[in-house]
Amino acid sequence: SWVQSSKLVADKYKVPLWAYEGGQHITQLPYDKDPQFFPVMKAVNRDPRMAQAYDRMMQDWISAGGQTFVYFTHVDIAKTWGIFGLKESPADDAAPKWQAAMRQRDTVSCWWAGC
User: Fold this and answer.
1) Considering only CA atoms, which of 66, 55, 1, 68 is closest in space to residue 24?
2) Is the pLDDT of residue 32 over 90?
3) In Å, what is the CA distance from 7 to each residue of 31, 46, 50, 83?
4) Which of 46, 63, 78, 98 has the fewest C-beta atoms under 10 angstroms from its C-beta?
5) Is the torsion defined by CA of 13, 19, 23, 27 positive or negative?
């Protein structure tokens, strides 16, 4: 629903809805020192269901009328304050988020007028 709300604001000002630094944002707050959180965060990001979540995110984006969508980062190591890369190393082509992004790149054609 927040994407649809953002689209209404974009339409009000007659600008396209673009995403910059898109993707999941599962992170441990700086003051939270729970040592059990980081392994859970890594497991969530590496779970095959994360690819399904990214597929759903893109479907929702397209359905709401969003245009250009830029993921936050290509490769980034897992850190306690976040795992934001589509993959955690350049060779990590099996990463679920990477797989979803590549599937989207290869199968989703331009969906808005003038693309």
Assistant:
1) 55
2) no
3) 34, 30, 25, 27
4) 63
5) negative
The CA–CA distances, whole Å, from 14 to 18, 20, 54 equal 13, 18, 27
Predicted structure pTM score: 0.89
Instruction: Estimate the share of the chain in helix, then strand, then coil, as percent rounded to the nearest 5.
Output: 45, 15, 45
In the chain, the percentage of residues whose pLDDT exceeds 70 is 100
Q: Provide the pLDDT for residue 81.
A: 81
Residues for the chain: how many in total? 115
Which pair of structure tokens corresponds to residue 10? 């974009």
pLDDT of residue 109: 86
Contact 24, 50 (CB under 8 A): yes
What are the residues facing 104 on neighbouring strands? none
Rounded (5°) CA angle 15-19-87: 165
